[in-house]
Inverse folding.
């Protein structure tokens, strides 16, 4: 496994812009969003977990889609980026799927 490399300031800015754009368009999906939020903050899974009061393993399980986080955990993660937990109309998700094909 390659060693984790801290992103440059420009890479971090780019990651944050892309993340915000995808969130606004309704195409940012959980659990991918968790890893992207963490990476855009320039943090390892361990650092991210410590900040949220979680273990590295819990973060890894959330990012891989194997965990079933509580609403409280989802809110904590989203708050880091000014996001909240909510519903996205299926039409928005369907439109994005069609556009990708």
């Amino acid at each position: 496994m390659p060693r984790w490399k801290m992103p440059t300031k420009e890479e971090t800015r780019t990651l944050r812009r892309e993340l915000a754009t995808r969130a606004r368009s309704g195409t940012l999906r959980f659990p991918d969003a968790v890893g992207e939020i963490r990476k855009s903050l320039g943090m390892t899974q361990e650092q991210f977990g410590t900040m949220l009061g979680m273990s590295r393993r819990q973060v890894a399980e959330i990012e891989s889609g194997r965990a079933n986080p509580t609403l409280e955990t989802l809110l904590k993660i989203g708050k880091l980026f000014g996001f909240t937990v909510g519903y996205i109309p299926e039409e928005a998700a369907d439109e994005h799927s069609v556009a990708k094909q």
In short: The domain at 9-100 is CATH 1.10.260 (434 Repressor (Amino-terminal Domain)). Helices lie at 9-25, 32-40, 45-52, 56-64, 71-79, 90-100. The chain has one domain: 9-100.
